[in-house]
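Appendix B. One record, verbatim.
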Amino acid sequence: MRIGVVAVPLLLLVSVAVLLPNHPAGRAPAEDTGVFFYAAQRLLNGGLPYRDIWDHKLPGVYFVDAVGLAVAGREGVWVIQLAFLAAAVLIGYRALRREFGDVAAFVGSLAWLVASPRLFLEQGQTNFVEFFALPLQFGALALYTRPLTSSRALMIGLLGGAAVLFKPTLVGIWIAIGLLTLFQQRRDALAPVAAIAIGAFLPLLLVAAWALSRGVLADMVDQTLVYNRAYASFMPAETRISDLIGGLRLTLPSGLVLIAFTAWLYAVATRRWQSPLVLIALVAFPLELVLSTFGRGYHYYFLAWLPSMGVLAAFGVSELRRLAPPRPARIALVFGTLAMCAQPSLLVTRLALTHDGGRLSAVAAYVAANSRADETVFIWGSHALVLVLAERLAPTKYVYQYGPLYTRGYSTPAHVDQLLADLQRNRPVLILDASTEGFITPPLDSAAFRTWTSLDIQYAALPETANVIAFIEASYVRAGTEPTTGWPVWRLRR
């Protein structure tokens, strides 16, 4: 049987299997996902990101989540994720098949797909921005041909602009395409490069116009550009290198990193880069390694590597089949593919059988039972997901505090004063102190705050935070603890 007959159904089946552990049944949203869902729900209810919730992501993920939540709640977001992953697989397979044939395209697609669970799955439902950029990256690869026409370049640029709306550092493939076009077409490169730039600019212009019309453009610039510059610039070089090595280790169990690096070195050493996709991968892969170090080495940052690594894996398979005798090559591919899938299969199975949403769902149930729908609730810490599950609003846009209030180089006394003013104006009926869940949120206790020090040197609470704590202690009464987590609970004095 030709692999081309079953390749697409098998890849789609693997896509569903990969996403099963991320289904919301029995799982609470992960920490970042809770923030995205809260922002998306505010959008659906007429609110606005940046004004009604402080967060440092560009609005692409909020728009996508809002669509999913409107259609079918958290399950709707999961369905959209499945659609994005399926689109990435189908587009990527088609692009790889065009260059390397059915077998290499199948193995290359399977290679990046089975490497992905270690990069985006957690103990909870996730929806990282890097995940949503995968079909955009593969779309740019599929559209690239030599010579690059202006119409295709414009479409590539549109996809690049859309990727930036998820995260600006996801542009490695587009930078590579631009550089290659300049180098290869030289005098004729102006039109396609300009078309890429125009295409990329259009989605950004639309979002800027939307933000300006809603009065949140200045807040969006502050939270997504000013904050992220301060956040990314803090990391020393040795930490960036360590995080990069950690990312490579995450793709080691499936063997993808070994295959990709071997194929990259082989292509450079033998100058076997006639394929346009191989050329893009040779340039984009190092760029993406560097871009992934802008910030902390969280596992999901490395999702952006997968398209380039998939291209390199497919190229390696095609070269193996070209150079080795058919029978040994076939045996090596069968056993290599099975070995590649072994560890990811165990990981996906374990996570699919793990249900861990009970703890924070219980907190949400406690909040819902002890507050009315028209009353606000404040979580002192970084668990916006509790508000999402309880269907409650915060009294302030600072639904989590470590980013806007404790980040060195960004936080100011004015931010803390705004939180205090919000609490004074929109007094929440409940305050839950979740500071014990991490090490960068100070305790909600004046005496303990005076001696508290963050264990992460990037974060430090400003002295003005003491005023917020003093207001809470004066206006609220300690009312025991939340039964499941032991978080201290403060109730508004009547």
